Amino acid sequence: MTRSYCLVDGKEHTTWFSKEGDITFGLLCLYHNKAGFEFVETVEPTLAYSVPIHVLNELYDTNIEIANWGRVIHQECLLALQCVRIDNLTMTAKERYEALLKTFPDICQRVNLGYIASFLGISISTLSRIRAEL
């Protein structure tokens, strides 16, 4: 499992989690080959594969199936990001936590609770209170 995060005033803010079989990347790094504002770290022992951006772009240029695969992956990522953004605007913290558990049922056993609270935009004490209610 991995988590993506950004630094704001020296504090880490979790922006995403990825599990087995997922593709994870920093957007600025992927699209512009520049160090980005988002970092990806493993939170468990992980076997990861990396494809340099110039190799990926060459594959996109020469293989329509891979290009379409990449397009579909990015469409799904964009949709998931938009759903999280809208959920953050329309759902209570408890509802956001429940939605996270639907995607990652075992996340509390695999990830530091502080990372989960950060992702949900709540304090650890609020997360603890929500977990106790459930």
Q: Write down the domain tally.
A: 1
Give the overall silhouette.
elongated
| DSSP strand content | 5-15%
Reported for the largest beta sheet, the result is:
3 strands, antiparallel
Sequence stretches where pLDDT stays below 50 over 5 or more residues:
none
Chain oligomer state: single chain
Query: What is the number of strand segments?
Result: 3
Number of helices: 7
Q: Give the spatial strand order of the biggest sheet.
A: 2-1-3
Which percent bin holds the helix content? 55-70%
What class do helices, strands and sheet pairing give?
Answer: alpha+beta
Write down the secondary-structure element order. EEHEHHHHHH
Q: What is the CA-CA span between the terminal residues?
A: 24 Å
Query: What is the averaged pLDDT score?
Result: 92
Radius of gyration, taken over Cα atoms and rounded to an integer in Å: 16 Å
Protein name: Crp/Fnr family transcriptional regulator
Key descriptive features of the protein:
elongated; cNMP-bd_dom_sf; three-stranded antiparallel β-sheet; alpha+beta; 134 residues
Notes on the structure:
The protein has 134 residues and is of the alpha+beta class. It has one domain (2-133). Helices cover 57% and strands 15% of the residues. The protein has seven helices and three strands. The chain has helices at residues 27-32, 53-62, 64-90, 93-103, 107-110, 113-120, 124-133; strands at 2-8, 11-18, 38-42. Strand 1 and strand 2 (11-18) form a beta hairpin. Helix 2 (53-62) packs across helix 3. The two termini are 24 Å apart. InterPro entries: cNMP-bd_dom_sf, RmlC-like_jellyroll. It comes from Parabacteroides faecalis. This is Crp/Fnr family transcriptional regulator.
